[in-house]
Please model this.
Amino acid sequence: MNSGTGNYWLKKNNRNFFVLLQHQLVVYCLQPVIFNLNEFAVRNFVLPLVFLFLLFTSPRCAKNTACTPKTAASEAPQIQGYATANNINAVAHSSGLYYEIIDPGTGAMPTINSNIAITYTGMLLNGTVFAQQTSPNNTQADPPWPLSALIEGWRIGIPLIKKGGRIKLIIPSSLAYGCTGKGAIPGNSILFFDITLVDVQ
Model:
């Protein structure tokens, strides 16, 4: 018996019946039964049961692990409540992003094709800090990041200020990491960022 996916030939009265079994447990449990049944029972009872088992087990597991994303509109009341509670004079962007420009800056304005150096703090709405950068990423070891490679909320929000500026962003989950989340960020998380744009290239 192969320990992985097995191909078993059942030989009875010089006729071959091919069964593709993908689960070793099924093979183990059915082996003593299959070889003691007649040809009619194998063809009309055992093989259909095996087929149905293989058909319905894995797909059901896949469905159960699927997540349901939230829309920006559905998260707007929570974002507005957070802004009010934290004295953020948030402006609603058409994308569903909320922002407050603390300092508009005076230098170059980034575009989607820019590389940016920033300092920032990222928080969940419960106050948990999941990321923080107090030194800008403008060294050889940590060069400026391409804006096009960052989350959509940053691609929308950071170009609202110029070099030297500072902005607060409240980003709906659909413009961040969606329903899957990432690392310490759970799925369907609204994110708050306080970002200073140090350099634009």
Notes: Residues 17 and 43 are 8 Å apart (CA to CA). The first strand starts at residue 6 and ends at 12. The radius of gyration is 28 Å.
